[in-house]
Amino acid sequence: MTQATTAPTRSRRAPRKARKHKGLKITLIVILVLLLAAGGTAWWFWSHLNGNIKGVDINKALGEDRPEKLPTSGQNLLVLGSDSRAGAENKKLGGAVGVSGARSDTALVVHIPEGRDKAVAVSIPRDTLVTRPDCTKGDGSTVAGRDRVMFNSVYSQVGPACVVKTVEKMSGVRIDHYLEINFAGFKGLVDAIGGVNIDVKEPIHDKKTGLDVDAGPHKFDGTESLKFVRTRYSLSDGTDLSRIGLQQQFLMALLKEVKSQDLLGSPTSAYKIANSATAALTTDDELASLTSLAKFARSMNGVDPDTMETVMLPVEYDKIDHNRVVAVKSRADALWKAIREDTPIPESAKKSPALGQG
Question: Is the pTM of the predicted complex or chain greater than 0.90?
Fold first, then answer.
């Protein structure tokens, strides 16, 4: 994806004040945490689910030039929702004609403090302009770094390890683990639980995604859910920043639906959902087995999604390309410092000028 070099013709309008939603796309991790033990009791269940998981060797690609792992820094995960068009199902769900490859459609840095009693999820807007460092591709070749690239293009241009490296360079936060889910996996997960109830806040008539719904309560299947979380241009402000709000609302509803089904009391349902999730899951090599995921899950037993704090990287509109945003350095620095040092995030670091906040 190439970045635009001219200002847009559409007038910029500041989005409505962002709502504070808790949970975010950490929901996927929470679901896996709850389901793996319940769905993998029989050996053949375990073997099948274990074979579903794909792993990438992040550590080898990153080498030694990484942020220091501080003794009090807890665990940090990079969670990506990929818009990969690989495979017939992903191409169909992706929708765009002539689009190939993949981008990181959503990105979260999830910080789990020491003690595992609370988590923080930091959303990185896909349109953020970042400096991509020198990176090594999967085939061993090197790609030179470049300034002012769109964050979601790093995945397609160089691969997941470079996304991790880019996040580490911009934040100074050591990323311990990587998790990714694609279009088809998202759809399959929602369909496996029988759909998700959503209270749509405003009518959505989106020609790009094909979603056409009035305001009010709706039950979305997997395909409709994917359209909902990808909706952007038909919203009142038409920005990617407001789409983040939709994604937060949806995934809180997803978690609520999972909890309402008492999946721990239904191994059959648990296995069905775990099968859908693991089939679409890519992790770093250290997590690429049910044994490793289960061990990590046990370490997160004390995390309550209802107490999770959701923060968006503080951004403002770029002065050269008004279709893009850039991090507000002072606020972003304060945010990442709090994550690194496992301290409360300052209120100023939770506000983004692009959202009309401060």
Answer: no
